[in-house]
Amino acid sequence: MMKSSKLVSILKTFDVTNWKAFTRFVQSVYHNRRPKVNELLVLLKKAAPQWKDKNLKKQIMYSKLFPGELYSEDRITELMKVMIKLIEQYWLINEKTEPTEKYRKLALAYHNQGFPNYRDILMDKALKSLQQKQLDAETYHSHLFKHQLELHHLVEAEGKRNQEPNLQSLHDEFDAYYICTKLKYYCKVLNYQNFRSHPYEIRMMDAVLQEAAQPSYLKIPSIQIYYHGVYTLLSLDNESNFKALKNLLAKNTKTFSVNELQNIFVLARNFCIKNLNRGKQLYRKETLNLYKIELAENIILEDGKVPDADCRNIIKLALLEQEVDWALSFLEEFKHQISKEVYTLSLGHLYFQQLQYNAILKLLLPLNFKEVLLELSARALILKTYFQLCRTTSDFKYEDKLEAYLDSFNAFLKRKKEVLTRGYLLYLNLVKFTQAINKLYWKSKFDKNKLSEIHQQILATPETAEWDWLKEISKIS
Fold first, then answer.
1. In this predicted model, what pLDDT tens digit does every residue of 226-257 receive, in sequence order?
2. What is this structure's pTM?
3. Could you count the other beta carbons within 10 Å of the beta carbon of residue 66?
4. Handedness of CA 255, 258, 259, 262 (dihedral sign)
């Protein structure tokens, strides 16, 4: 049966553009001179996209290709193999070639045909094209090394003994390529070991780090970025290396490919986040400033969207830094690049900071979030809003609404207990502590000693959602 064959499996991945381009490829006598391969392709194209079994029997295909002839398994199999080879050739020819690589190959073609002037023009174009495109660091240095290697071969081919065969430049570019690549992937090793222990044996790293610190490499951004990146991963106390990394990133957002920039910014942000977890609050602003650079340069976007986790982090950091106006402008500027649920929830958090409590209820109460963690965050924000309304207005209806919402939140957590795992306890503690604090306000005489006791319990239970808010509302004023 053809349906389970390698050929059909590949053709199933073809879209309309692939079908058109590959059909033209097969029809070209330069690539294919076997008419039966063309006929097989027509039959397979008719079978797509349903690929029903009855249309894909080899015997039926064979009878249409070779009417009146006895069936030959070998013959139909051979045609299928030929078409697979044509697909592979089509892929290679249609693979996008870097302009630098293209110019260099053309230069060598002109050289082989005896046109040194055109060769030299194209070699210059190859070098200039490198400055016009954002590439991964090792790709960039690989091109520079290959360029010097080709120049070396060209000098040797011309047989001019009195001309230095480009060996110094060749070694310089190879060293830069090697050091940059070694540092980059050592960063990946250290980063991976943060999550899972693995017995790597990475040789010569001390020598590479020592060499990367030499003055001759100070003007090569990629080497300096990964050099300082390594040290931020080796120790959270390497603050000078972080500052150097941050400054290099700000100056070189046009130097690297977007994918590489995203990875480097994550490296820098992780250093900040780990230090924040150590209690170094100055890294809140540092982290937010890194996000601001990523936003200004559109580095943060993935498939044209701001990732949900990053958006929520940005809003949280902005609010902690009292940058409400900036956060609002961020939400409006990137409204169409942020998922609707995250945008709505973020707006709710901004309203809370601005004490617009009724606006929060109007925004969030009618909604049910598809993502359970977003639903939890929204419910926590509504709970906080009802609590604040109870404390800041004389309308007693909010007392009833808060109690009803606490019961509702409790019931929701019990229903979702299996799904929530760790989140279940975090939010259960939030409900429990809010309920305990709120009950103190029911009594004719407010019990400050009891509030102090609750405050101490909260301090001892950091595994609690909205922990900072609970600490604040349980303080003795």
1. 999 999 999 999 999 999 999 999 999 999 99
2. 0.79
3. 15
4. positive
Q: Which residue has the higher pLDDT, 101 or 265?
A: 265
Rg over CA atoms, the chain? 32
Q: Between the CA atoms of 108, 109, 114 and 115, what dihedral angle is there, to the nearest 10 degrees?
A: -80
Phi, psi of 403 (to 5 degrees): -60, -40
Q: How many CA atoms lie within 13 A of 127 on its CB side?
A: 13
Paired tokens of 175: 């060293």
What is the Cα–Cα distance from 154 to 127, expressed in whole angstroms?
A: 16
Collapsing DSSP states into helix, strand and coil, what is residue 302? Answer: strand
Q: What is the DSSP letter of 444?
A: S
Q: Which of 464, 404, 403, 460 is nearest to 435 (CA)?
A: 403
Q: Please, which residues have CB within 8 angstroms of residue 104's CB and are 6 or more apart in sequence?
A: 122, 123, 126, 146, 147, 150
- DSSP assignment, residue 305? B
| Contact assessment for residue 360 and residue 381, using Cβ atoms and an 8 Å cutoff | yes
CA angle 426, 432, 436 (to 5 degrees): 145
HSE-CB for 43 with a 13 A CA cutoff: 26
d(CA 187, CA 171): 24
Burial of 434 (0-12, 13-18, 19+ CB in 10 A): buried
DSSP conformation letters of 47-66: HTTT--GGG--HHHHHHHHS
pLDDT of residue 396: 85
Integer Cα distance of 381 and 362 in angstroms: 12
Nearest-angstrom CA–CA distance, 12 and 3? 10
Q: Are the CB atoms for 161 and 126 separated by under 8 Å?
A: no
Q: What are phi and psi of 302, to 5 degrees?
A: -120, 120
pLDDT for 323-358, tens place per residue?
A: 999 999 999 999 999 999 999 999 999 999 999 999
CA distances from 106 to 99, 114, 455 (A): 10, 12, 74
